[in-house]
Amino acid sequence: MNIIYKFSTLCTIAMLVCLMGQKKTVYPKHKHTDSLPAMQGDIISVSYCDLVSNPTKYDRKIIATEAIEIINIAQVLDGGEPFLYSPKCDKSDSTWILVDVYESFIDPTSDTSKEIEKVVLKAKEKRDEQSARVKVLIVGRFFAPKSKGGYGHLDWARFKLVANKIEQVEEVPEETPWPLGYKRVN
To answer: What are the structural domain ranges in the chain?
Structure first.
């Protein structure tokens, strides 16, 4: 089982490295192409709570927000996709934002990617930790709820972010609450 887990983890990392190295992406589900905004002024800074409270205001816009990202270390059948939340306005999964790793394009060689990798590896070293949390300032294209269905595996997420860049990374203090309703794998 340990060999399968290691192989699965390596495959996931390899896939992320390939996907995140892209400079431009096409959103096949949304029929449009985007790249990073031409200027820093094209990015809308918004608090996480305002983003999930007023999603149509920011739909398909490039936003920057600060949140906590959950990254599952253990392979799970359902619900294993990375997502963002904020303890300031957490109301279970109705306020979580899926980070779409298949359409995102973040440089895996950047300092922030390396910092995230350190946090994940540190959590992996603890046998009881199956998920890692990292506080990020993340930039990307935000997608508000669709009229039908959701985002991610089994349409679990109301919101989606296609990440362009992670500008800051910090470790999350142990006393910070985990997301409401989130089932940690043990």
So the answer is: 2-171
